[in-house]
Specification:
alpha/beta, 3 domains, 7-stranded mixed sheet, 8 helices, 7 strands, 16% strand
Length: 250
């Protein structure tokens, strides 16, 4: 039993090292805060953890026996490792496929958007899909002018389907989340005042809890609605002084 526990422990450490590398990419590159919450990435991650960190070492403990022929022992352990690799590969494939590609600000709302939701062929030269090693691209959508707004209203009145501006990739403009960004001042002006949220039955308690748990007052933060393909709806919060991410609730 001691030998089996040692083998299972070594297997666990090796698995933990590999999984830590995978999770670093998932949580710090593909789904940095707050995206791992918005997209419920843990649903896929927990399968990886269960198979690779629990089931794999447990099976090694069950089958490991120094009295077995060497070839048979190698075969049994190899089968477990292949099973783990397949589970890890599946998890990485799913998380990469469903990763957010664009974090779009339009009107007074941020949208977390996947590439299959938009026509990437219409992207202008200033915007591209994130590479495998890059975080989601932050995007600004310029407001419609009066003529465009009137045309869209006419289309809606005639029963035509109008694509939301947040999905019109030809209108995408790269947005640097720093105070010197040319679009930041417009975004700041469109934030929802915390006093407005305090009047809402939905958000009042959560805003109060956030303010009591963080330094500064309500005027030190910027509040915006946040949407994700109808699966997530909430409020995202940024620090007013540097536009860094400060919080999220739904």
């Amino acid at each position: 039993m001691t030998t089996r526990l040692i083998a299972a422990g070594l297997h666990f450490l090796a698995s933990a090292f590999v999984i830590s590398l995978a999770l670093s990419v998932i949580y710090f590159v593909w789904y940095p805060a707050p995206f791992y919450t918005i997209h419920s990435v843990f649903d896929a991650v927990k399968v990886i953890l269960l198979v690779d960190l629990v089931l794999g070492p447990f099976l090694t403990m069950l089958i490991f026996n120094v009295l077995k022929p060497r070839s048979e022992l190698i075969r049994d352990v190899s089968i477990i490792v292949v099973f783990q690799i397949l589970a890890l590969g599946w998890g990485i494939h799913i998380t990469y496929k469903m990763r957010p590609d664009f974090f779009v600000f339009q009107d007074n709302t941020f949208y977390s958007i996947l590439k299959y939701e938009v026509n990437v062929e219409n992207l202008n030269d200033d915007v591209s899909l994130p590479e495998i090693w890059q975080r989601p691209k932050t995007i600004y959508v310029e407001p419609f002018d009066k003529q465009e707004a009137a045309q869209r209203l006419q289309s809606v009145m005639h029963g035509e389907r109008v694509t939301g501006a947040m999905y019109q990739t030809e209108r995408y403009r790269p947005l640097a989340m720093q105070m010197d960004s040319p679009y930041i001042q417009d975004i700041i002006r469109k934030s929802t005042g915390y006093t407005v949220l305090l009047k809402s039955k939905t958000w009042k308690n959560k805003v109060e809890q956030f303010l009591s748990a963080n330094e500064g007052g309500g005027d030190d933060y910027l509040f915006y609605s946040l949407e994700n393909s109808g699966t997530f709806s909430g409020i995202i919060i940024f620090n007013r002084k540097d536009f860094s991410f400060a919080g999220l609730f739904q």
